[in-house]
Structures are given as C-alpha cells and as structure tokens.
C-alpha cells in the first residue's frame, strides 16, 4: 500500500495511512486520461480528473436530488502553456540538469551499459508535498493521499505513449511536510523555493531515512513558486537531474496548484528527466556512456519533453524519449527500476482530475497568488477542450487546457488534449 507519512525530524515515529481498504475506490481510464476516486460516505461521491481539461467534485453543501443523490460540480482547467501572449501564461521553464563528470559520484563514473532485455519498468516513488501544498488540505492526510495518487495516475497515463519499455510509476510513500520539518527546502521568503539547492539538499538530509532510500526516485510537489538557484529567475516550473534514477541524486521538484491538477504535465516531464530523457532536440547525457540523446526529435513537434504546447502531442512523449528511457533502464546502476523493492500491496486511486475538482474551483485557485481568484466562464471552450477563466477586475481572460475526464460533448470527454470516448483507466 501507499503510506501517507507525517515526516518529523528527527524521525521519532511514522504515521502510516493504510491504503488497502481505499484501493477499491480508485479507478482510471487510459484512453481518456481520467482518474477518479469514488466513495460512499454520506451518499455516492465522485472526485477526480476527467481527461486533460475536466474535473469533477462533490458539492456536499448543495441541495440533494429528490432521490437523495449528492450534487456534483463539473468544471474545466488547462495546464500552463507558453509562446502565446494571448494566454498570459508565464513560461514553463522545466529544467533537467545534465551532471558533468566532475559532479558525478564514483558509482556514476564507473558505469557501463549492460545487455539485458527490458519490457517494463515500475519506478517506485516517494512523493513529498511541501507545507504550503499540505496546508491547503488542512494537513488532512487522507485528502492529500487521494489527490497525489490521482495526479500520479494521470502522469502514468501520459507514459502509456512509451511502449518499449512499458512505464508505470508506483507512489510507494507520500510524505506530507509542515513548516517545521521541510528542512531540505531552500526557501526565499515564504512563497519561493530554490530549485537546484533544494534538490542537492535532499540526499544530504534524507539519506538515512528508509522512505528515501527504499524507492527509486523522490519527487517534491510544491505549491510555492520555484526560482533558479543560479540567477533567481522565477520562470522555472520544475527541475530534475537527468538519468539519475537509483543513484544518490534521484530527485526532482515540480509545481502544482492545489485543487487544479495543473501540474500533471510538469510532473511527467520531470519524471522522464530522472528516467534518462533529455529535452527533444538535445544532446546525450554526458555521463551516461552511449546515451542516444534526442537530436532526432524536433523541439517544435511539441511533445512532453518540449515546452511547446500546440496540439495533443503535448500530452505524449516522443520516440526519442522512449529510446532514452529504454537505454537508461539497461544501464549499470539502474537495476532498481526493474525490481519491486517495497513489497507491499499498492494503493492507487484510479480517478481523473474531473472526479476530484471542479472547473469553478480550478479558476479560483489556478492564479490566486498572481492575479487573485478568477471566475470560470462556462460558455466557452468545452468543444476545444479548453477552460476560460475571467479576471474579476478586468476584461482579461485566461485560457487553460481542460483536465482529463471533463466532458467535451455528449458521451465524450477530454483525454490527452483530445475530445474522445471515455477511456478505461483501471491499471
């Protein structure tokens, strides 16, 4: 099962939330990039992601139907984009750092390729949520667990475009941090966090903790604004070390706005970096001998390892990403990707964002710290799998991608940026 851990330094106790009972409540649909959590608490309730643009959540305070059913709110969102001034969205500067030879550990320097057949990898993850993120859920670990597992399910649905090897990440530990124990976070004030310094701190400060050592990759989800360690640039939305799965620097950090699932693509992008993928069009990773790189795939094609978002490619990985992940998984020192190290029953919530949040809530939260609350415009964007959010004090309109699972027409939902039939996401 996944463990939802309250992290304390020094570690005196670990509070684990059993996931076996909740496992049956998670459902996902691969064709539509949907993942939802179903509960029967005080009536049937659905919360999660319905495709790339739609979210759904219950409205407990609303009046019930004549049959006593809980009312639900269906709403749209869009992931952050760049290169289009009309969208008024800052650049997603997702960075994957290629470690130079003098920064590599002895283990990395001595690596040589291994010849072994690989058909599937199941990266085991420890996911940290920073205090700002956790506080938005009132430190309710059940709510955090459900939200993060839905997010990772949607990340996995994007990895279905990588077929050789098959990739399915397993969030083994979910660690909810508070202000007292997020000691590895390199903060600048209360709203900003440095990228590289934070990642460098993780193995230094967490190396003796089981939940860090036991998994293949550790990812920090932050509700703060990530800024560059080197120049303070705030355009960074995620950061990772390329090809470091199973090694000391098996770490990444990515932004996520609570209750929006707008960071699904960011998380998938950074996870692909750690699994060995460079940006499309970039050279090989210098300290992995024989690494294929991504010269053969154009940045302008707009796949997930590019910042360009022009069509449904932005919800998929290129062929170059598949080649790089396959090569890295065969490389000496990355054997952990082929093994199930934490042999516990896995808990997953196979929901889509549309079953966890509403489009009204998405607009309220998605730019709260930059522009304040926005208001959802239900009259536009459904057929195009877009979400329109209006600023309250101006005529400015923000356009976002519709989250996975939200309706785009009768009997069809948005999934990976397309309006299509509802997919089956149960893994």
How does this structure look, described?
The model is unreliable at 6-23, 80-94 and 100-114 (pLDDT under 50). The protein is built from 9 helices and 23 strands. It is an alpha/beta fold and 427 residues long. Strand 12 and strand 13 form a beta hairpin. Helix 3 (141-159) crosses helix 6 (264-274). The chain has a domain at 85-338: Collagenase (Catalytic Domain). Keywords: Hydrolase, Metal-binding, Metalloprotease, Protease, Zinc. Zn(2+) binds at residues 269, 273, 279. This is Putative tick metalloprotease 64.
Structural descriptors:
single chain, globular, metalloprotease, Putative tick metalloprotease 64, 23 strands, seven-stranded mixed beta sheet, 427 residues, 9 helices, Collagenase (Catalytic Domain)
Task: Report the radius of gyration as a whole number of Å.
Answer: 20 Å
Strand order of the largest sheet: 1-11-9-14-17-16-7
**Alpha carbon gap, first and last residue:** 15 Å
Q: What's the CATH topology label of the domain at 85-338?
A: Collagenase (Catalytic Domain)
Question: Helices and strands in order, then pairings?
Answer:
Elements: E1 3-6, E2 26-29, E3 34-39, E4 45-50, E5 54-58, E6 72-76, E7 93-97, H1 106-109, E8 120-121, E9 124-129, H2 131-136, H3 141-159, E10 166-167, E11 170-176, E12 187-188, E13 192-194, H4 195-206, H5 210-213, E14 217-222, E15 225-227, E16 236-241, E17 251-255, H6 264-274, H7 319-329, H8 359-366, H9 368-371, E18 374-377, E19 386-391, E20 397-401, E21 407-409, E22 412-415, E23 418-421
